[in-house]
Amino acid sequence: MRKELPDHVIWLVDGDEGRYVHQYEFRPFAIGDVATFYDYHEDGTFDYDSATTCRVERDAVYGEIARKV
What we know:
It is a single chain. It contains no helices and 5 strands. The protein is mostly beta strands. Strand 1 and strand 2 form a beta hairpin. It is globular. It starts with 8 loop residues before the first strand and ends with a strand.
């Protein structure tokens, strides 16, 4: 069974690749937010080398997603 993701985790659309990312503050996001996101790890650790600036948008297929800016 797949574990439900926390509210502060979102799918990053990055060309043909994608991955789950989250904000440093571990808080939910809103459409239009621009912030620094980090690769998501279930244990809550950060890979600071993965930092990327993203905008939260609504996608017709995926729903709320992050896109690099």
